[in-house]
Structure formats: C-alpha cells, structure tokens
C-alpha cells in the first residue's frame, strides 16, 4: 500500500483543457476553477459540461473540482450536483472530503471585482468563508490566491498589484496545511504567477495551477503542478 498520494493540480483551463498532457500514475487531480469563459450562464453551461465530461474520463481515481468566477452556470444552477456525480467528480463548495486520510477543503469564492462574475464576495466580508475551514485540513483548494503569493496582476491604471486575499492568507497561516491550491491570476506580460512556492518560516506549499497566459488564449503555457503528499 502506498504511503503517499500523487496529486496533479490544474486551474484556469478556459476551454483549452484538451491541450494538456495527462501525467501518468496520478492518484488525485485537483481543478481549482475557471474551466469556461462566458459570463452568460446558458452558453457557459455548455462549456462547463464539456469540461466535466473530459475531467470525468481521466484515468485518475479521485477527481476534485472547485468552481471559479468564470463558471457562472454553476452558481446559477444550470450545472448541478448530479452533473458532477454522474461524471465521478467530487465537487467542493465550502465543504470537505477525506481521501485516504487526507482532508481536502474547497471553496469557489474570490473577492468581488467587476460585474457579473460568479462566486464573488465583498473583500471585507470574505473572511467568513475562510472561518469555515476545519482546523485539521491538509489541503485547501480555492479559486483565488492568498495575498502576496503568486498573485501579481495589473490594476485599472496598468500598475502592478498583489490582488490576492489577505484574510485567506491569515487563515492559512493559522492552519498550516500541507498544500494550498489556487489559480485565478494567470501569467501575463512577463509576470509569472503559475508554479509553486514554499517559505522558510512554515511548511505549506502554495500552488498556482493556472495554465493560460492573459492575452494569449488559444494555447497553454504549462501542464499544471504535481506533488506527492504523505498520507
């Protein structure tokens, strides 16, 4: 019996999932949001259902899905729980699952921006979502990043800013999970957000699994991140 789980983390495929190379010998695949593009829920649902069919057919035992701000058809319930169950997918929506002794908690929520996106919460109130994360969580899966970690983007004036969530960062530091998976903020104009990082003062691995680059949709820039975690 293996004492480790091999995890493949991907995010922000934006309909280009079929360009990915599927790694071998993966135990768990984690998707952390934005498989689709349109804000309008009905056309969005067609893209989400196509992704779920592909995701469900992967030769990987455990498949975990957390929605993102582009996945409007899930928030509007045009894509429902049976669509995930029928495809053999674990859909985490502010809840948890335990896989071979590893507790995984996931949420789609990100701080509000723009208009018409899914799963947005006021930045001053979103901490209430993170308060739900159990103390003994091993892996946290969110769509958006914690503040200051693989989260560099441009503001409306084209200045670089860290746009992750500070309250999420604080909660992660309280819990010290083994792995935090997110996406939302892509690579862009020479800025690299995709990849993973670990800091000297705590053991958590932070993974931005986004696979597209802003301004270059139609191709992918990487194949996600792979980790091995002890059970």
Would you mind describing this structure in some detail?
The chain is of the alpha/beta class and 231 residues long. The protein is 17% helix and 26% strand. The protein has five helices and 15 strands. Strands 5-6-9-12-14-13 form a six-stranded mixed beta sheet, with no helix packed on it.
Our estimate of the beta-strand percent is 25-35%
How far the N terminus sits from the C terminus, by CA atoms, comes to: 11 Å
User: Helix amount, in percent?
Assistant: 10-25%
Gross morphology is: globular
Task: Specify Rg, calculated over alpha carbons.
Answer: 16 Å
Question: What is the strand and helix layout of this fold?
Answer:
Elements lengths: L3 E7 L17 E4 L9 H16 L5 E4 L6 H4 L5 H6 L3 E2 L3 E5 L2 E6 L2 E2 L8 E2 L5 H4 L8 E4 L9 E3 L5 E3 L3 H10 L3 E4 L12 E4 L6 E4 L16 E6 L1
Parallel strand pairs: 1-2, 2-3, 3-4, 6-9, 7-8, 9-12, 12-14
Antiparallel strand pairs: 1-15, 5-6, 10-11, 13-14
């Amino acid at each position: 019996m293996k004492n480790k789980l091999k995890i493949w983390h991907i995010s922000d495929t934006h309909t280009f999932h079929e360009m990915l190379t599927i790694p071998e010998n993966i135990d768990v695949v984690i998707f952390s949001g934005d498989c689709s593009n349109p804000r309008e829920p009905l056309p969005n649902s067609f893209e989400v259902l196509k992704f779920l069919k592909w995701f469900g057919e992967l030769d990987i035992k455990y498949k975990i899905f957390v929605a993102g701000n582009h996945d409007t058809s899930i928030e509007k319930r045009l894509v429902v729980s049976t669509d995930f169950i029928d495809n053999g997918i674990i859909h985490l929506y502010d809840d948890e699952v335990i896989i071979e002794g590893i507790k995984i908690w996931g949420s789609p929520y990100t701080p509000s921006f723009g208009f018409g996106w899914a799963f947005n919460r006021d930045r001053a109130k979103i901490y209430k979502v993170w308060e739900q994360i159990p103390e003994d969580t091993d892996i946290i899966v969110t769509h958006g990043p914690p503040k200051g970690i693989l989260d560099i983007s441009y503001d409306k004036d084209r200045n670089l800013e860290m746009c992750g969530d500070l309250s999420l960062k604080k909660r992660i530091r309280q819990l010290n999970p083994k792995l935090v998976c997110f996406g939302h903020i892509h690579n862009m104009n020479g800025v690299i957000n995709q990849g993973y990082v670990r800091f000297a003062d705590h053991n958590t691995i932070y993974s931005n699994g986004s696979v597209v680059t802003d301004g270059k949709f139609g191709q992918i820039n990487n194949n996600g991140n792979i980790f091995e975690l002890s059970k």
